[in-house]
Batch of 4 targets.
Target 1
Amino acid sequence: MSVRRRGVRRLLASVVSVGVLVGGSQSAQASVLGALGGLLGSTVGVITTALDTTAGLLTGADWGYSASTASMQQVQQAVGAPTLYAQGYTGRSIGVALLDTGVVPVQGLTAGNVINGPDLSLDGQGPGASYLDGFGHGTHMAGIIAGDDAVRGGFTGMAPGATLVSVRVGADDGAVDVSQVIAGIDWVVAHRHDPGVNIRVINLSYGTNSTQAYTSDPLARAVENAWRAGIVVVAAGGNSGTNQPTLDDPALDPYVIAVGSADTTSGTLLPSVPSFSSRGSATRHVDLVAPGQSVVSLRDPGSVVDTEYPAARVGTRFFKGSGTSQAAAVVSGAVALLLQARPSLTPDQVKRLLMNTAQAMPLAGSAAAGAGLLNVAAASTAPVIGGNQTWAPSSGLGSLEAARGTDHVVTNGVPLTGEQDVLGGAWVPAVWAPASAAGTAWSGGVWNTNVWSGGCWCGLSWTPLTWAATRWTGSDWAGDSWSSHTWSAELWSSHTWSGAGWSSHTWSSHTWSSHSWS
C-alpha cells in the first residue's frame, strides 16, 4: 500500500535565507528610517505604525537565497548571552523539550546534551525509523537551542549546558497532525519531573491557521496547561507577514511567549523586522523578537531541506535558515539560561522580564516587534515588575478539526479530518480537557484511549536516555491497518547513518508550502 502525506503548511515555521530586493537593502532602509526618526521625534510612533501595516509594499521580499549569515556567536552577542556565559551560566540542569521533526547524531548534538522522548511521528513506526530527523528542521532548531561541540572554540547553541528533550512529532516530509502535537505537549507535562529531565521550557517552532478563538481551541488549552504546570512555552509567531490577520496557533494564545523574527545580520545597532515575520493583529501580536534571519546552525546531511536547498549549506557542517522558527529557538535557549540563573522564576515572571527588558524597536512598530529585541542579559538582573497574566483561559472544548485550519495529513488520498486523532481515536474534549489540565492525559503509553508509545525510559537509540517505542496497532483515520502500512520511498529502515549523510536515500518531494530553504 502506498502512502502519500501532506504536512501542516505552517509546521516548522521556517523561511530560509530571505533577502530584501525592493527598496534597497534592509540596512539602508534602517538608516533612512533612523534619520527620519531623528527628524520626526514624537511623531515617529504614529508613522511607523502606518508603515508596519504596509511593510510588504515598503520592502518587498525574495523568498529565496540571501547572501547574509548570522553565526551563533553573532546571535548570542545580539541578545546579550555572553554576559551570562561569563558568570558560568549555560542552561545546565534545565530541560528544553523540542517538539519537532526529531534530531540526528551530528557533531554538536552528541555530547550527551540530547535525550529522546517518545517518537510520535508517522515515520517512527517503521523498523529502525524512530528517533531520527529526515526533514532537517528539528536538528537545525536543536543546534540553536543547545548545540555543544564540547571543545573550546567549538560550535555552541544558546544554552549548551541544557538538556534537550526531543519529542518527535513531524515525519521526514514534515507531515504531522495537530493531535500529535497535543499528545506531545501532554507527555511533556506528565514527565517534566522525571529523573534527570527537569523540563522547564517547550519550544514550538510551528503552528496552524486555526479557525477558532484561542478560548476554545484544544491546542491553546494544551499549551496553557503546560504553562500553569511551570513550563515556559515559546511559540513561533508565523511567517505570513501582513498576509494573515492573526498569529499562528498556538502563538495566538496570549499566555505563551509569541516570537517574531529580527534581522541582526547587518552588524549595526539598529535591527529590523523582516517582512515575512507575522504581524498578527492589534489585539494579539508577537511579544518580542529575536534573531531569525539567516541563522547558521547544524546541518542534517541528506535531509529534505539539505537535499532540496544546497545553497543554504555553510561549509560541510552547517546550514542557514530564516524564520520565526529560528527566532523561537533562540528565545527558548535564552530562557534556559535565565532559569539557571534565576530558577525560582515562574513562566509569567519569565515572560514579564523578557518583555520589560527587550531592546525597544520603535521604527518597527509594536505589531511587528512587540516589546522589542530579546536582551537576556538585562532580564537576568532586572526586577520583576507586574503581576500574573489574567487573560481569559482556553476551555479546550472547541473543535480538533478547527484547530487544524487548512492543514491535513493524507493517506491513500484520504485526509485526516473531523473529531478524531491520528490513530482514529474519537476526540471527546469534555474528557480530554480536564485530564490534560490535571497532567493525567497520559497513562503509561496510552493517550486518548490508544497506545501511542512505550511507558518507560528504557528504549534504545543513539542518545544516552530514550523513551521506549512501540508499534501502533489498530487502524488509522482511513480505516487501514497500521501494521500493513508501507512508507514507500519515505521508509527509513533501509538507510544507515554515516558521517556524510543518509546512504541510498530517496527523498519525498513534500515541503512546507509558502516557506523555502536555500
Target 2
Amino acid sequence: MKKIQLILFGFCIAGFFFSCNTKSTEEQESSEEHRNMFGHYIQRGVTKTSESLADGYIMFTVPNSALAYLVNRKGEVVHKWKGNYSVDVSVGYLMDDGSLYQCAMDPDYPVFGHGGPYGRIQKISWEGKMLWDFEYANREEIVHHDIAVMPNGNILAIAYELESYEDAIAMGRNPDLIPKDGPWLEKIIEIEPQGYDDGKIVWEWHLKDHLIQDFDPTKANYGTPKDHPELLDFNMGNPIPPAITQDSLDIMIANGMAERNETLGSRGADIYHFNSINYHEALDQIVISSPHLNEIFIIDHSTTTTEAAGHSGGKSGKGGDFLYRWGNPENYQRGDSTDQQLFGQHDARWIEDGKPGVGNLTVFNNHPPSEIDFFKEVMGNPSKNYSAVFEIITPLDSKGLYHIEKDQPFAPEKPTWVYTSEDTLSFYSPFISGAHRMQNGNTLINEGARGRFFEVTPAGEKVWEYLNPYRGEIRKPNGDPVNFMFLTYSQFRATFIPADHQAFAGKDLKPVDPQPEEFKLPPKKEKKEEE
C-alpha cells in the first residue's frame, strides 16, 4: 500500500526471490507465475469464470490515480468515480445513492512519513461531483488506512496520535523501544460530516487510555498484563529499526523507498499500525486490526467519549477497554509463540446479516509460518510462505460480552473455516489484502500485492478470478513520474457489490466506451546467455 512497506517486508521479499533462484530451471518455469508476488508479466483481466455466478460487480481503486472503478463479471468497467488526489492508500464505500466515500492522499501533510497516512476523507457523487472533502492532517494527528461508514452517516476513522519521547517514558514504555521523535499511538474518531469540507468529532477513543506495563514500577500503568487482557502491554509492538545515516535516508527518499517526511528520529514510530476498522450496528462495537501486534481487537462504541477513556460505562460496562482480542495471546502473557495464529493480518470484519456465517469474523492472514502445528495440519507442511483467510466464531454471549477463562486466552482455539491454495504456491501477499463473505456463501478475496481478486466456494473451489490491469499516471510535485515498480497493480481492498444494490436503481451499467487503457509494463530485458 505504501512504498515504505517494501522496506518493512524487504527481508520477506528477498527471501522469496532467493528461494525461487535456488530451484532448477524447470522448476522455476513451472512455478514462476504462481509465485509472482507483484503480478508482473502475467495475464491480467478475467482469467477464470464459471456459470451461475452471483450477479454483481467488483469495486476497487486504481493505483497511482484518483479513480475508483466498478467492473462487471466480464472485467469490463461500467462506472468510475474520480477524485482530485491519489487514492493509493484508499478504500471505497458505496452509498445507497450511488455516492462513494474514499480516502485520499493529502499532498502536504506534515510529520507522518510512512505507515499508510492519507489525511483526507472524501465523498464523491455518482456523477463525479465532490460532495465532501474533509482534511484531518496536522503535526499531531492524521487519519490513516481505513474508515467505516456508520448507518447514521457518521464516519469512524483510524488516526495516528503523536506522543513525545518523554510522555512515552512516563507511560512506562522501555526507552530502548522509543524513537527519538516519540511513538505514534492510535485513536479512533467518529466524524459527523458538516458542509463541504468540515466535520465535527462527536466521539473519540484513545489507545493510550488502555495500557498496562510491567517494565517500570515507578511509572504509570504498572501491573501484570496476564491479569488484564482488557489492556495492552505498552512494551509490545515493533522495536526501533537499526540506525542508519542521514545520507542513507536521503538516498531512500530520493529513490522512493521512504516518504518525504521520514526522519531519523521517526523511524520505528509506527509501533502498532492499525490497518482496518469495521462497525457492527446491533452490537454497537468496533473491530480493529494491528498487524504489528498480530492481533484483532473489539471495543465498545456505546460509551461516551469520557467513558471510552476509562474502564467502565457503555453497554459492556467496561468503558473503552478491550472486550475481545484474538491472534496472539503471548501479547497478554496467556500463551507463547506456538499459540500465535495471526501474522501481519488485514481486513478484520464481521460477516453481515443475510450472509452465511453472520456474526462471525473474517480476516486475511498474510503470512503464517509453516512450522506451527496448526498450519502444518491445514497446509500439509508447506515449504514456502503463503497466505490464508480465516473465519472465526467469537465467544459472544447474549449480553454482547466475550467469555474468557481465568489464565486462558480468548477462544476460539482454531478458526472455523480456512482458505488456502491447494498448491501452497499460488496464493500469497505479505501485505495489504482482504476478504469478505458474499450473499451466496462464497468469499471474495483480494490478494493485494498482485491486485488479484478471486471468488471461492466454502469448499475452496475458485469460481472467478480477475487481475487488475489498470494503473494511473499521477506524477510527483516536481513532475517526475512515480516509479511503477514494485507495487504496479496492488490493491488495498476490493469489494463485491450485488446487482440489486440500491445504488444501482435506475442506473445504466453498460460498459463504458471506450474502455480505460490498460497499463503495460515495459518489455522484459532479455537475459544474456551464459558463456
Target 3
Amino acid sequence: MTFTLETIAGIESIISAPQFDHVDSDTIEGALDEAARFFSEVFAPTNEIGDEQGARLVDGQVITPEAFKPVWGKLVDAGWTAVTGSPEYGGHGFPKTFGIAISEMMTSANLAFSLNPMLTGSGITLLTRHGSDELRDLYLAKLISSEWTGTMVLTESEAGSDVGALRTKADPNQDGSYRINGTKIFITWGDHDLTDNVIHMVLARTPDAPAGTRGISLFLVPKYLLNDDGTPGERNTVEVVSVEHKLGIHASPTCVLSFEDATGYLIGEENQGMRYMFTMMNQARLEVGLEGLAVAERAYQHATEYAKERIQGRAIGADGPSPIIEHPDVRRMLMTMKAYTEAMRGLIYDAVAADDRMHSASTEEERDAARDRLALLTPITKSWCTDHGVDVASIGIQVFGGMGFIEESGAPQFYRDARITPIYEGTNGIQALDLVMRKLPVQGGAVINAYLDEIDALAVNLAATDDLSDIAGALSRSLAAVRDATTFLLEADPGDAMAGATSYQEMLGTLAGGYYLALQARAATKGAQDDPWFAAKVSTARFYAMTILPLVSGMAGAATSGSNVLFAIDESLIGGVK
C-alpha cells in the first residue's frame, strides 16, 4: 500500500500542498502501521460474527451483531473515521489519498461493517460542499467523529436506476422545514443501534417541481430532531418497515424506510438535488470500487495461507506430498489473484489522488486536468474493480477446492459479500454507459486520448529497458486495440456505442491495470536484484502482461460489433422455445 501511495498516487507531491503542512511521510507511515494493527486485531474478528448473526429488526429498531457496538466505540475513540475530515469540525485534515488506504484496511477487515462509515463519509462530503452554514454547524462535527452516521436515500420501488421516476414528496412548512412523505428501499445502514442519531440524505420532489431528474431536491432528515442545545431530542417520523434478507453483507442492515410527515431540511436550492447527490454518489462509487479491491485482498490472503498449509499430491521434483502452492495450477490462481489485486490498488489510488489534486491545484489548468482524470477513472474504478473483486473471491473458493464450498472455510463469505458490489451505487452496466456516452466524448476525446498517451509513453520508455521490454510489448499491443475501439465508439451511433460499452469498459480497465503494474515494475527494478520484494513487483507485472493483458485484444470484437448482434433475435424467442 505504501509503495502504491508513493509510485502511483504521488503522495509526496500531494502532502506538499499548503493545507497538508501538518502531514509528512513519517506521520503517514506510522499511521498506516497503527491502522493495520487496529483493523487486524479489533475490526477483522467481527467479520465472521457479523455474517452469522446479521442485523435484525426488533420492535421497529434495527439490532446489530452484539460484537459491533464495543468495536464501534473503539473506532470512534481512535479517530480513524475522522482522518480526512475538516479540522474546522474536528477532523484530522489528511488527504483523501491517505484516507483511502485506511478505508481499504477497514473494508478488508469487514465489508458489511465498513459500509456505515463509508456512507457517512460520502454524506460529509455532500454536506461540506452543498449544505448551509447552519446545517454544517449542527451536523458535521458529529458525522466526522462518527458519533452520528449518515445514509444515502435515493431508491424507490419504481425508481431504481431511473432516479427521475421517484415519487417521494416534500411540502414546505412555515418555519422553513419540509414535510417528507414516501417510501424508500435498499437503504444501506438505514437504521442501527450503534449511535445516537442517523442522518438521512433524502431525494424528494417539492410541489410543482418539473418532471424527471430536473425536479428533484435534496433534504437532510435526521432520525432524531435536535434540541436547542444540538443534542438528539424528539424521534422523527421515519419508520423502518423491514430489513432485507440478502445473499451477503448480512451485518449491514438494508432497510425499507417510510417517511410520514417527517421533518426535513432543504440542502442547497430546490430542484438541484441530483446535482448535489452526485457529489455523494461519485465518492461512493470510488469507495465501492475499493470494496472490490478490499475483498479481493482478503480472499487472496486467505487462499494463500491455505495453499501453503494444505498438503495434497506431489509437486514436480518433490520427494513426497507437497503443499498445493507448489502445483502450477494453484500457483496460476494465486498469481492471478495477486496481479488483479495489485492492479486494482493502482487504479483506485490514482483516481483518489486526482480528487486531492483537483482541490489543491494552484492553477485552473491543473484543476481542470485533475477533474477530467477523476471523471474518466471513476466509472472504470467502480466497475472494473468490483467485477474482478468478485472474480478473485471466486478463484479463492477454487483454491480451497471442496472445502471452499463449505461455509466453515471462510472463503464463501468473501464471494457472497463481494457479489453486491457490481450492482449497487449504479450497476456496472450503467457505469459503462457513463464511460462511453459521457466521459469519452469530453473535449472531443482529448481526455481519454491523453490518458492513452501516458500509457504509450510508458511503453516506449520500458521498451528501451532490456528487463522490461516484454512488458512494453504487451502493453503496446493492448493499447493499440483500445485506441481502435475508442475511435470506433467515439464515431458510432448511440445504439452501437451502448452495445459495446461494457466490453470496452473491461478493455480499458484491463489495460489500465497493466499500466499501473508496469509503472510499479519500473520503480522496482533498481532494487529487484537485491530485494525479493521488489523482484516480486516486476514478476507480478510480467505475469499480468503475459497472461491477462492479451485478453484486451480478444474483447475488441465485442466492443465494436454494434447492436445488430444483440437484437438479431426477436424478444419472443429469448428465454424459451416457440
Target 4
Amino acid sequence: MSELLNLVGLSTGVVLYAMLLAMVVRRDAHATVPRGVDPLLLSTALLGLLWNLCALPVYGLPKLGVHTSLVALTVVGFGALGFLPAVVVQSVLRGEHDRLESPARRSIAAAAFAVSATAAALHIRGAVLGLTVPSALGMQLLTYSYVVLAVPVAVVTRRQPGARRALWIAALSIFTVSALHLSQAHRDGSWPVELLGHHASIPLALAILYQDYPFALADLFLKRALTLLALITAAFLSVTSFHTSAAAGGVGGVREVGSLVVLWVATALLYPRLEAGIGWFVDTIVLRRPDYDTLVSTIAKQSRDEQDIPHLLDRACEALAPALSAQTVTWEEIASDAIAADVEPARRSADVIVPATETPQYVLRVGALTGGRRLLSDDYAALQSIGSILGRRIDAIRLGRERYARQLREQDMARLATEAELRALRSQINPHFLFNALTTIGYLIQTAPDRALETLLRLTSLLRGVLRSDGEFTTLGGELQMVESYLDIERARFEHRLSVRIDVPAAIRSVPIPPLLLQPLVENAVKHGIAPTRAGGEVVVAARVDHTSDGSQLIVVVRDSGQGATKLEMKRGRAEGVGLANIERRLSAHYGGLASLSITTARGFGTTAEVRLPVHAPTTRGVASKEHKVS
C-alpha cells in the first residue's frame, strides 16, 4: 500500500505542476493586454514539475525491482526542489508592483537564491565524489536557512496587500524542503514519514492553483482526484477486509471470495453516485458555484414578465456574469447571415446564439472568465438552455406586439367604418318626417302660435342632436333628450292618437352608449307601429340595470302598442332598411358579443325592441376607461 500511495502521490504532483504550467502559459496567451510570461510563476511550475518527474523513477523503480544508477536524475530533482522556495520567496517579496522596492527585499531574495545555489552545488559535489545524494549538508542548509529567512520575509511583507496569503505560500515552500529533509534523515523510519517527505510539494501546488486558478483546479483535477481517491479507499478497505477474513478462516474460501466480489460490484455501482456527490461538494462548497437548474429557472421566471427585448437581455446578462465568474457578459444584435455559435469546449469565452425566429437576431457574448476557469459541458448546457428561453420569449414579445398592432389597425378600421355609417345615418333623416313636422308647425302657427314656437324649438333641438358629432359616445340621458324632442314633435302632429311614457331612472342616465342608438327604434315605433293604426297607441321607452355575477348590464326597451308585423314582414323590413342593421354593427364594433339587439313583434300585439349592453367603458380606441357605477 505504501508503494501504491507513493506512486499515486508522485503522479499527482506531476499532474498538478503540469496543470500549473499550462495555466500560466494559457493565461498569458489569452490575456486581453499581453504582458508576457510571468517568470517567477513559470519557474515555480517548471521546478515543481522537474522535481516530481525526477523523483518518480528515482523512488518508484527500486520499489518495482529495477535497480539502476539514477544519480543524475537525483541531482537534478533535488536541485530543482532546492530552488523552489527561493523562487516563491522572491515572488512574495515582489508584491503587487512586480518589483523588489527596497534594499532589504533585494538582500533577502539574494540570500535565498544563494542558499539554493549552495545546496545544489553540494548535491553535484556528492555525485562527483561518489558520496550520498542528496547531500545531507545541503538539505540541512536549505531547511535551517529558509526557516531563518521566514522571519525577515514576514517582517518586510506584513503591510503589503495579501501578505497573509503570500506568507502561507512561502511557508508551504519551506515546508516542502523541510519535510523532504526529515524523510532523508529518517530513511529507516515508517512509510508515512517517507510519504510526507516525497509529496510535500503537492500542498504548495494546490495552494498556488487554488489562489490563482480555483475553477481550473476544481473542474480539471479536484473532482476527478477526489473521486479516484474515494474509489481507491473503497477498494483498499475491501481488500483489507478480504485479507482479514482470509487470515481468520482460510484463504480462498467461497464465503471470502463471494464477499470480495460483492464489495467490488458495490464499488462499481456506487461510482456514479460517488462522482455526482463529489462534483456537488466541489461546486457548492469549494467553489460556491450556482445551481444551474435554479439559475435557468430564475431567468425563465424573470423573462415571463418582460415586455422589452433590450431589458430582457440586460437582465439575463446581469444574472449570468457572476454565475459564470465572467468579467463581462454582453449581448449584441447581429445580422441573420452572421449567425455562428462559438462553443468550443475548454474555452474562457463563448458566443451563444439566442435562437429567435425572425430578424434581428441576438448573441450573448461571454467574456474572459476569472480564476483560470474554462467553460465546460455543464456551463454550455446551461447557456444553451438560457439562450433557448430568451429566444422563445423574444418570439413571444414580437408576436404580442404584432398582435397588438393588428388589433389597433382593426379597431381603426372598425372606428372609421362606424363613423362612416353614423354619418350616413345622420344624413338619412326621414324627409317625410321633416315635411310633416314643417307642415304641422305651419298649421300651429295659424291655430296655436305658442305651440308652433315650442314645436319649432323641439325640431331645432332634434336636428342639433342628430347632426352634431361630440365623439363616438354619448350618455343615455343625452340620447333620451333627443328622443323626447322627436316624440314631442310627433305628438303635436298625432295629438291624442300618440301617447308617450318614459321610464328611465335618473341614476342610470349617465351610462355611456353609442349615439343615435334609440332614435331609430323610436322612429320605427311611431312610423310602423302607431301611424298605420287609426286609433293610435302608446310608445314606451324604459331602461334598467341588471346586476349579475358576470357584471352589470344596461337594458333599454322601446315598445309600441301599434299594429305589429308578421315574421315575413319583419324580415323584409329589416332587409330593406338600414337603421336596425346599423345599430347591430355598431354594437358589435364597440362591445363585441357582449351587446345585442332583439326585436319581438306579432300582428295585432305591437312591437318590442330590446337593447342589451354592458355597463362599463367600451373597448373602442379613444374612449375613456372610467367605469360608470349605477345603483
